[in-house]
């Protein structure tokens, strides 16, 4: 995979973290310039089924679109879930260039198990050390046991997950939704960056039982 020199410098860190925490810890390096082929380094990818060239996650797209990295340097200890339903404790470190633009994300995902507390403590100390050594701040997402990220290996699954994350907040079947409700869903998806993915318009149109032209109209409406 192609990557710039600044990101390549983090590849040894991917291996370092994975070697310290062990085989129940997945570590990835994302290049956010190409969200569809984002993973440029990975260890223990068997945990989520991902490999080199896999896409950015639904949460990753949202963080990129909303420019969270401008206010903080990392988010830590949030819940994620694999396609197989296994929950993990995750942290994401933002990698920025000299112009403060986001170029990559270093992600650590640890399986929640019987010894999860010990593993979590070790991961916390590691992330804390990395951040403090760079003189930066971190911020946790709320630990309310709500899964905020889905770890998928395909573009289709990433888009599908992002769509259903929003649709599931509505207590009404898609076929009974009003134009206003569908417009609101499309706007939220746009705000979360899902339309950075090629083919997302088609997928959203199918899920909302609408035409692609209708989705474009929702996007252009105010």
Automatic annotation (TrEMBL):
Residues 7-113 form the YheO-like domain. It holds the Pfam family PAS_6. InterPro entries: DauR-like, DauR-like_HTH, YheO. Residues 159-219 form the Transcriptional regulator DauR-like HTH domain. This is PAC domain-containing protein.
């Amino acid at each position: 995979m192609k990557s710039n020199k600044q990101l390549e410098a983090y590849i040894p860190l991917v291996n370092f973290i994975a070697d310290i925490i062990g085989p129940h810890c997945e570590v990835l390096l994302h290049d956010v310039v190409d969200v569809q082929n984002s993973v440029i380094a990975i260890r223990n990818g068997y945990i989520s089924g991902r490999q080199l060239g896999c896409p950015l996650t639904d949460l990753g797209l949202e963080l990129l679109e909303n420019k969270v990295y401008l206010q903080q340097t990392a988010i830590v200890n949030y819940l994620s879930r694999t396609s197989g339903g296994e929950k993990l404790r995750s942290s994401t470190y933002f990698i920025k260039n000299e112009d403060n633009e986001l170029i990559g994300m270093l992600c650590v995902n640890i399986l929640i198990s019987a010894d999860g507390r010990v593993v979590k403590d070790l991961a916390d100390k590691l992330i804390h050390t990395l951040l403090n050594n760079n003189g930066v701040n971190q911020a946790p997402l709320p630990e309310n046991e709500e899964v905020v990220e889905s770890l998928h290996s395909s573009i289709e699954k990433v888009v599908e997950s992002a769509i259903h994350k929003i649709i599931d907040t509505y207590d009404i079947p898609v076929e009974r939704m009003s134009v206003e409700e569908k417009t609101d869903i499309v706007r939220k998806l746009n705000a979360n960056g899902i339309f950075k993915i090629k083919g997302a318009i088609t997928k959203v149109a199918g899920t909302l039982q609408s035409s692609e032209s209708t989705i474009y109209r929702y996007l252009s409406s105010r």
